[in-house]
Please model this.
Amino acid sequence: MHLIPVFGIWCLMLGKLKVISKDMSLFGRYFSFLERQGKVFNFILALICAALLAAIDWVDPNNFSLGFFYLLPIVLTTWFSGKGYGYIIAALCAATWTIDNLPTNPLTLIWNTISCFGIFMILAILVHEVKKMLQNEQRMARTDPLTEVMNLRAFSEVVGYEILRQHRHSVPFSVGFIDLDNFKMVNDQYGHQTGDQVLKAVATCLVQQLRKTDLVARYGGDEFVVFLPATDLTAAEVAIRKVRECLLKTLATYDSAVTFSIGVVICTHPPDDLDEVVSLADNLMYEVKHSGKNDVRYKVFATTASQKG
Model:
């Protein structure tokens, strides 16, 4: 068999194509299309592909070796449908290739079947592991390693897109800036390990109390920022009240003097720049700090098209 020198290439090639596809619209549309169709669709597509290869191999089994092309449905199925479906396709492709190239010696038949199936299974495992590594890298690049919420880069990308979408629908949204008061005292008195536990607890509280559509990010140090889509002033007050109650209750377990200064900006008309809204929320938070800490301030940001002109 000529599969051994090339089976490793296939498992890496799809990952590379996934990266390249970001800059190539044709590949990007193709990969996006397959991902949207779901596991069953891609499994059926792989079955059709394997059947076509088997038919071609059956018509002319001796002149042209199609062993290399059997890797394609295995790679695509494992990538888009998961390793379980990939193992099934690997077994079917191994059986099909062996039958289409049926040797006269029974021992040769057994050996070819086992070796072919082994190679196809290893390929499926490698593809699965490569995809896991790529997904972990993407997740780590967009996640704060300590609190496991979004980092500022990922937050800016997602919210920037949401702002563009809000331009078309004119739906209000809110941005909250949260700072831990007296957090330095925790590190000084209990150590940085306890300080890290506090930050993790704050992030967990924010995620649990907010909606699944809301976004939470660690802005840096002991600061967090939240994005609340489709949220006006009334809804923002309700959400932040729940968050603040949870935060104060959570921090009470650490027997610390940590409280929270929060600034919330409600955008009734989407701004052009996310940084402008975050800066406004940051300024509101500092107003709270300068006036005694442990409070919330709200401000409605209502820039209209006429005001912009």
User: Anything to note?
Assistant: Strands lie at 173-181, 215-220, 223-228, 259-267, 295-301.
